[in-house]
Amino acid sequence: MLKKCFYSFPEAGTDEAGRGCLAGPVTAAAVILPEDFNDDILNDSKQLSEKQRYKLRHIIEEKASCFGVCHIFEDEIYKLNILHASIQGMHRALDQLSTRPQHILVDGNRFKPYRDIPHLCVVKGDGKYLNIAAASVLAKTYRDTYMEQLHEEFPMYNWKKNKGYPTREHREAIRKYGISPYHRKGFRLLPDQLELGL
């Protein structure tokens, strides 16, 4: 059973999706849940089916006290690096909250202070706290929806299925067709043996 929150006052959970992808944005979300919120299905988005994630997205959007979602796109990822881009996305998602949190729970072990609000980094926090799990679901579903839209423009990479992650199929398509404007410059898009044509 996931814990509701770390403190009883307004607390935001924040998480990102797409950090390990070769294409598309890294997407961050921040969520403040009401004290009476509970859901037996809500968990780390990676532990849920696609159908469960999208069902939960609607529940979270309807019942959350407030939430924010932010995409950080390829050019900014290149300028900042993926870690700092992920943190910047979380900050911008927090900026969207209509209620100022008094504490922030962050999934993972790296974060930069946000304003003067205390925070706590929790490794695998999306499987421990409801508000981080809710943020993980929003980040994942918003990013997946975006990648499915990009699929219509570049169907050869099959982003509708792989969502930009470094699958064998995705890397074979990069080798065959080259890169798109949505691929991340500075990332190792192909293993050495494919780059060398061996």
Question: Layout of helices and strands, plus pairs?
Answer:
Blueprint lengths: L10 E7 L8 E7 L17 H14 L2 E7 L1 H7 L1 H14 L7 E5 L11 E4 L7 H24 L5 H4 L5 H10 L14 H4 L3
Parallel strand pairs: 1-4, 4-5
Antiparallel strand pairs: 1-2, 2-3
Task: Summarize the structure in words.
This protein has helices spanning 50-63, 74-80, 82-95, 130-153, 159-162, 168-177, 192-195; strands spanning 11-17, 26-32, 66-72, 103-107, 119-122. The protein is an alpha/beta fold. The protein has a single domain (11-186), classed as Ribonuclease H-like superfamily/Ribonuclease H (Nucleotidyltransferase, domain 5). A 5-stranded mixed β-sheet has the order 3-2-1-4-5, with helices on both faces. A hairpin with an 8-residue loop joins β1 (11-17) and β2. α1 crosses α4 (130-153). Residues 193-198 have low confidence and may be disordered.
Which short descriptors sum up this protein?
alpha/beta; Nucleotidyltransferase, domain 5; 5 strands
Classify the secondary structure makeup into a structural class. Answer: alpha/beta
Reported CATH architecture: 2-Layer Sandwich
Instruction: Please count the helical segments.
Output: 7
Q: What is the CATH superfamily?
A: Ribonuclease H-like superfamily/Ribonuclease H
**Helix-residue proportion:** 25-40%
CATH class membership: Alpha Beta
The major sheet is characterized as: 5 strands, mixed
- What fraction of residues sit in β-strands? 15-25%
Would you report the number of β strands? 5
Note poorly predicted spans.
Answer: 193-198
Helix-strand sequence: EEHEHHEEHHHH
Q: Cα distance, first to last residue?
A: 49 Å
* Number of discrete domains: 1
Please state the average pLDDT score.
93
**Sheet with most strands: strand arrangement:** 3-2-1-4-5
